[in-house]
Design a protein that fits this description.
Blueprint lengths: L9 H7 L20 E5 L12 H13 L5 E7 L5 H21 L7 E7 L4 H6 L5 E6 L4
């Protein structure tokens, strides 16, 4: 039987993109935490970690390695950087870049959950005005 590629609705197409294997913990409410939160800035339209982001990323990695029992939420943000599709894909690419950088420095991938957040898809997020062009790293409270 030949393999057939079909066009999927946008919401299913985003799910069908190659993704990181996500651990089984939730990042719901991570945006509301105020302690052990790190912000990684990205250039407009970019998903590569810049030299300016190295210091806060190193601090987040150090904190994660010091507390191996805590899970880490990596929340990629993108504001009005193209259409809704472009923004959510860019947010996901940013989160994935930070995930990969943390895993490469020894933070266990089973502790890292990368998620894309876009203000264009959530009235609650729009109202809170998350920082666009950033990735927020949140060390979740210990279990």
């Amino acid at each position: 039987m030949p393999f057939v590629i079909r066009r999927l609705p946008l919401c299913l197409a985003l799910i069908a993109l190659p993704a990181l294997a996500q651990p089984r913990f939730s990042c719901v409410g991570a945006e509301k935490l105020e302690e052990d939160v790190f912000s990684i800035a990205f250039p407009r339209g970019g998903a590569q970690i810049t030299e300016a982001a190295r210091s806060p990323l190193a601090a987040a990695i150090e904190a994660a390695l010091a507390e191996p029992d805590r899970n880490i939420c990596i929340l990629g943000h993108a504001g009005q950087e193209g259409g809704a599709n472009t923004s959510i894909q860019l947010a996901a690419q940013r989160a994935r870049a930070v995930h990969n950088a943390m895993a490469a420095k020894g933070v266990g991938a089973e502790r890292l959950r990368a998620e894309a957040r876009s203000a264009q898809f959530s009235p609650a997020v729009r109202a809170a005005e998350p920082p666009s062009r950033t990735v927020t790293i949140v060390l979740m409270p210990p279990p």
